[in-house]
Design a protein that fits this description.
The complex is a heterodimer of chains A (402) and B (339). Chain A has 402 residues and is of the alpha/beta class. Chain A contains 14 helices and 14 strands. Chain A has two domains: 213 residues, 3-Layer(aba) Sandwich (Rossmann fold), CATH 3.40.50.2300; 158 residues, Rossmann fold (3-Layer(aba) Sandwich). Chain B contains 16 helices and four strands. The chains are: A alpha/beta (402), B mainly alpha (339).
Chain lengths: 402, 339
Amino acid sequence: MKSFNSTLAAGLVATIVTAQPALAEDTIKFGVLAPLTGLYAIVGERTSQGVNLAVDQINEQGGILGHKLEAVIRDDETNPDTAVRVARRLVLQDDVFALFGPLHGGAAIAVLNEAQRLKTPHIPWAATEEINTVNCSRYTWRVGSSAQQTSRSGAVVAQREGLKKWATISSDFSYGRSVVNQFTDNLKRLMPDAEVAEQAWPKLGEEDYSPYISNIARADPDALYIGLFGADVVKFLKQAKAFGLNEQVTIFTDFGGNHVVLKALGDDAPFGHWASSRYLHNYPDTQMNRDFVQAFKATYDVYPDMAAGEAYAAVHVMAEAIRRAGEPDKDLAINALGGLAYNAPEGWIIMRPSDHQGLQSAFWGKVSHDDAYPFPVLSDIQVISPIQAAHPDEDSGQGCRN
Amino acid sequence: MKKLSDAAVSYGSRPIATSLVNGKTLTLAGFAAAIAYPLLDGNLYNLQLFTEIIIISLLALSLNILIGYTGLVSLGHAAFLGIGAYASTLAMQHVYPSIWAGLTASVLSAGIVALAIGVFCIRLSGLYFAMITLAFSQAFYTIAFYWDSVTGGDDGLIGIPRPDISLFGLTEISIDGFVGYYYFTLVIVALAAYLMWRILNSPFGAILKAIRENPERVEFLGLPVYRYKLAAFIISAAFGGLAGGLFAPFQGFISPELLYWTKSGETVLMTILGGIHSFLGPAVGATVLIFLRDTVLNYTEYWKIIVGSILILCVLFAPGGIVGFITARLSEIFKGASK
């Protein structure tokens, strides 16, 4: 018996000793594409921070099935061609287990195509609806909200507020058009007597919005829906406020509830008007979100924005899929993604198998001051469930039979 | 134009044709090495990088028909890469799923478009030719960007196939994998480059060079300069279109970025960097630029600063391009020996 015990002890020691180097060798790598340079560099920085925080936390808790996790983050230059090149390098050279990103819709679709060819799991940052409708692929699953979910839920708020006569403005490219079209589509479904009086389509990166603003004012709508993205929405809202548009119409800003936008706007934010964000650091007030915000703030000394929140959730979802698969196998992990539920800082996310979309609630709120923060935040949050806002199940999933 | 002729005198005291003849052994050795490469190195990443280098080399070679041989600097050559890529994709996805259908469509469409716009472009020379080619290419970029129903708009087209090729109906060869497509590209580009070399070293090619040096004199000889220039423009575009037809299945997706003026600029850069006074110079330029980008990109996202600095040094110290620089040094060394 004694000898059995000592053999057991020796065996255990040996296992522990040999387990250490084995852990380092069998590292699981996540390849991340983000805009680290150019106009969206700030989004890229937050994305990287969200990914790194999730990776550090997973490693502190023993990694994934005993494997250490490592993120390889690369610049996609917000360009589809570069994104494919980088994705290829990440898979073939760096041997990553999964691809994440990019933010740019066209680039994300290009990487989706490449991920399918390389048989590698892929979670895009882009919210473009084409990712899980016409282009839906076995290997690509979106954890973050889709663009149509945010804009369709905007129509739900519009109905609650009883706003009938509308104007819209969005950038003239596929994502911009899709955001506004989904909003007007759902608006007319919910309120058949609603009217869209004016639609403005400035080019992406427009500097001077004054002709568009005066056209909108002339149409005299009850409300304005803004589908502009990134720096464009900041420029537009500043010019609209200077014009006095905020006093004339109720403003709905699709991307405007994002922390980076509100922080950039400061006193020029459209106070009292509606805005949405796919992640909010002050809502929901759950243990999960409080812990995330606290850890993020402690590590990077900034508040997490939408990009950080979605990147953090995406890494955790993929890690969970590998755990469920039982081994780091790409195909088994993909099989495990369908139906997976994850309690993210923004609330529960359920991966819908029919169209590979992570179902979650959408948030709209009123831009306001809060003494707890030195920048504008959203309050009076309206939570719109995916049943009310997500793309109907039967419409999508055309390409997801494989 | 003055500058071009000066460079031709300093580096091209030997005619362009001989630089390939001298490099014949080198070229054949390079081709043999390219055939053997996949057997020696199993790294798929490097293999797909070489595939891209081979395709883009064809693009740079085709541009040099205009720049180096005819003396026309086009700033819109990417338009033909893009037209070829879209034509081959649409042909394979909607007409007939064969790579031959795709490549034929890419060559024909680029050639036809070149005929249509060449009628306007060729009448101009120098800066005006550069400007009008730039304008036309931007027009095609805009069409690709906004014609959603056909080109997929700014998202582009995905799922571009690499259909199996059938050899005389006897056997099917798959070119879907990295190795298969590498060999397919290598063979097609080698054949295209050989054809291009034959064209440029024919009497027709000699007249193009004469037009580059002195168009008035060629006119006085009774030769229709305009038609020769138009023919050069169409041939250049057709080979550029072929590069596009190979690129689309390689990348698996295409977007309007392919036609954007920066892509044209990049191609001009490759051509000049490699050397416009030798047939294979532009291919060397393409190889160096793609390798530099790939290597530096792996270390820093600010790769453009480093690549840009290297290019400035090249332009300052090797105005005849890399190949021009090397041949000039070599001829200095062997001057005594050859006499």
